[in-house]
Amino acid sequence: MAKMEDIVSLCKRRGFIWQGSDVYGGMAGTWDFGPLGVALKRRVMSTWWQYWVEDREDMYGVDAAIIMNPKTWEASGHTATFADPLVECGACHGRFRADKLAKGVNESVTTEEFLAQKVKCPTCGKFEWGEIRKFNMMFRTHVGPVDDDSSIAYLRPETAQGIFTNYKNVVDTIYPDLPFGLAQQGKAFRNEISPRDFILRDRECEQMEIEYFIDPANWKESFEMLHEQYYKFLTEEMGLDKDRIHDLEVAPEDRAHYSKHTVDIMFDYPNGQEELMGMAYRTDFDLMNIQKASNKSMEYIPKGGGARFVPHVIEPSIGVERLLLAVLSCAYREDEKDGKVRIVLALPEHLAPYRFCVSPLLKNKPELVAKAREVYATLRKKYSNVTWDDSGNIGKRYLKQDEIGTPRCVVIDFDTLEDDTVTVRDRDTTEQERVKIADL
Ligand code: GAP
After folding, report:
1. Which segments of 112-164 are extended strands (E)?
2. Which of 275, 280, 301, 425 could form a disulfide bond with 259, CB atoms 3.0-4.6 angstroms apart?
3. 270 CA to centre of ligand 1 in angstroms
4. Would you say 240 and 277 are in contact if contact means Cβ atoms under 8 Å apart?
5. Count of CA atoms in the C-beta half-sphere (13 A) of 61
C-alpha cells in the first residue's frame, strides 16, 4: 500500500495539492488545489454529479447559499449539539479531542472516563489534564456592519441543511414523484480541534450529499438500494479497491443526534482505517424541525391519493477530499523498470487530469514540432484535456506523465511526416504501438 508521505510528496511536487496559504507558513486544516489537483477534483465531482443526478430520473440538484439564516442551525440541533470533547493540558496548554486520545470511548466521554485511561499529553508527556468541555465546531461570523449578537451567522457545517430548507421549494415548483432525492455539492466548514492526515480531516472541506425523501414504510429498501449503488459508484467509477472498503454499523450511542440507523463506509487509508462516507437514516427529524421552526407545512401529498405526510430521509454523505485521498491512494504505485523506480498514478482514465500528452520526438526539428502542434490542436478540439510537453528527453517526459496519471503519450517522429501515424505509449504497461492519427 502507498505510504502517506509518498502521496503528499507527489501531490506537492506535481501541483495537485498544497497547504492552504503556504506562502505565509500555512493555515492548518486548509488545502489549495493546483492545476492538476483541481482538474482531478472537478472530474471526481462531475462524475458524481452525472452518476447521481443527471443519469437518474429520481434525483434533482440544488445549490444553496453557504451562509444561512441562523435559525437553520438552531432547528437542526447543530447550535446545541455539534460539539467535540475538548481537553486541555495544564502543563503545555495543548488542546486535543479527548475521544481521539483515549481508546474505546466516544464523543460523550466524561472527564472521569478519560482520566481513568492515564493518557499522557502527546506534546509534553505530562499528565495534567483539565476538565473536558464541549467545543462547538461551527465557525461563527457576523453578517452586515453590526458586530453584536444580533448579527451572528455560521458558515455551514454540512451542506445537508441547504437541501432540507429547499425541500418545500422543490415540491412546490416541480412536485417530483416520491421517492426522490435532492443532491448538492459544496463547501462545508468545521472548526476541527485537530485537523490531520493530509486532506482527511480539514477545517474547510467540500461535501457531496444526497437527501433521499421516502415513505417511512420503505426506509430499509431505500437504504439498501443507495448503499449498493454507492458501492458500485466507489469501485466502478472511482476505481477504489474492493478489499479496502468496509461497512461499519454505527452503535446507537455513537450515531449523530439526527440518525436512527447509520452505516459508515470505512476505507483503508495509508494511515489506517477511517470513515470515507456515511449513510444515515435521518427519519423526519429535519423536516419536522423545519416545520416547527418555520410554521410551514413540510407534508407531501401522495400523487396516487392517500393521506399527506412528512417524508423521511436517507442520507448518503461523502467528503470530496476523503474521496480524493482514497482515489489517490488506490492509484499510486511504484514499479521497477531497468533498475529504476517508476511512480505511476494509475487513475481511471475518465478521472485523469489529462487524457493525452502530445510531444515531438525532437524539440529542435521544426517540421516535427509543427506536425506535433497540429496533432495537439486536433486532439484538444476533440477531448479538451490534452497537454503538451517538449521538455527534456522522451524518457523523462514519460516518467513525468506517469506520475501525473496521463494514460497515453503521443509522440510525433519522422515516420509521422510520411504516413500520419504516431507512437502511442501506454501509462500502465509502458508498451508502445503505432496508431493512425485519425484513430486517436
Ligand atoms: N450531513 C451529514 C454529515 O455532514 P458527517 O459524517 O459529519 O455527516 C459526512 O460528514 C462526510 O463529510 C464524512 O463522511 C466525510 O467524508 C466528510 N467530512 C466530514 N468532516 C470532514 C472534515 N473535517 N474534513 C474532511 N471531510 C469531512
Report:
1. 133-136, 140-142, 152-154
2. 280
3. 19
4. no
5. 15
> What cell was used for 300?
407531501
DSSP, collapsed to helix, strand or coil, labels residue 90 as: coil
Pairing, β 421-426 against β 133-136? unpaired
- Per-residue pLDDT tens over the stretch 376-403: 999 999 999 999 999 989 999 999 999 9
Mutate which of 100, 317, 321 to test ligand 1's pocket (most atoms within 8 Å of Cβ)? 317
If one counts every other C-beta atom within 10 angstroms of the C-beta of residue 414, the result is 12
| pTM check: above 0.90 | yes
Check: CB of residue 84 under 8 Å from CB of residue 97.
yes
- What would the pLDDT profile of 266-325 be if each residue is shown by its tens digit? 999 999 999 999 999 999 999 999 999 999 999 999 998 999 999 999 999 999 999 999
For the stretch 366-374, contacts whose Cβ atoms lie closer than 8 Å and that sit 24 or more positions apart, written own/partner, are: 367/417, 368/412, 368/413, 368/414, 368/416, 368/417, 371/412, 371/416, 371/417, 372/412
Structure confidence by residue, pLDDT tens digits, 54-107: 999 999 999 999 999 999 999 999 998 888 899 999 999 999 999 989 988 888
- Taking the centre of ligand 1 as the mean of its atom positions, its distance from the CA of residue 320, in whole angstroms, is 9
CA distance 191 to 134: 13
Q: What is the pLDDT of residues 251-275, one digit of tens each?
A: 998 898 889 999 999 999 999 999 9
Query: Which residue's CA lies nearest to atom 19 of ligand 1?
Result: 319
- Do 406 and 387 contact (CB within 8 A), yes or no? yes
One-letter amino acid at 65 equals A
Q: Is 205 in the pocket of ligand 1 (CB under 6 A)?
A: yes
> Cβ(208) to ligand 1 under 6 A?
no
As a whole number of Å, the CA-based R_g of the chain is 26
